[in-house]
Amino acid sequence: MLEIRNLISGYGKLAIIQDVSFKVDEGDFVALVGPNGSGKSTLVKSILGLTNIFEGSITFQGTNITRWKPEKIAKMKLGYVPQLANVFPDLTVSENLELGGVTIRDEDQRRHLRDRVVELFPILKSRPRQRAGLLSGGERQMLAVGRALMAEPRLLILDEPTAALAPIVAEQLLQRLVEIREKMNVTIVLVEQNARKALSLANRGLVLVQGKSAFQGTPDQISQDKDIIRLFLGELAI
């Protein structure tokens, strides 16, 4: 579904991602982990057209999207939930969801998608007229994920959606991602600081360190590699 080849990217003239290659197959749940400052967010922003691409290529569903503008990439059924500024705070829950589905022209289809979203996140159903800015942190993250799903993405990329959330709320949100993958047939790429938890949900993982791919493989392979744990993830990270 997604293939990155020898990617070098960053901001201005500064290259942060250094010759990274990896694939995401349809149906995957990929955990993108690594220490702070390793380039995880820069890598996903590169996929979405939000960085400068110096070398390499990015292919999504067989189409080369390297250096495409973000608005063009968004029409490719590639969803994104950023860590911050991921809802419209002055709009209601219902209005945020409607904006998420603005590219879906069929009204019945939009209604069906909205029903599936509020089934996943019942709290959204109970507060349709509440301003998004008045929701709790966990509720805002649920709304952000729900809004992204309204565009019916094939691939959903989430950048640290559990940051600053209480542990029980973070657990609930992560379990919803598993349901989204299974029930809505959405491929997931999750950037997450809690490497242990992310890898427990994923079927594949990518460890990024200083902008480079340090290790790729199954969660078991990553978890059992003592050098990766000690040198890259840290003893307490996994």
Structural features, described:
This protein is α/β, with parallel strands linked by helices and 238 residues long. The protein has 2 domains: 1-77 and 154-166 and 189-238, P-loop containing nucleotide triphosphate hydrolases (Rossmann fold), CATH 3.40.50.300; 90-152, no CATH class. The protein is 39% helix and 26% strand. It is built from 10 helices and 10 strands. It has helices at 40-47, 70-74, 93-100, 107-120, 122-126, 137-149, 167-184, 195-201, 219-224, 226-233, and strands at 2-11, 14-24, 29-33, 52-60, 63-64, 78-81, 155-159, 187-191, 204-209, 212-217. It has a 6-stranded mixed β-sheet with strand order 6-7-8-3-9-10, with helices on both faces. The chain has a 4-stranded antiparallel β-sheet with strand order 2-1-4-5, covered by helices on one side. Strand 9 and strand 10 (212-217) form a beta hairpin. Helix 3 packs parallel to helix 6. The longest helix is centred in the last third of the chain and has 18 residues, at 167-184. The radius of gyration is 17 Å and the shape is globular. The mean pLDDT is 91.
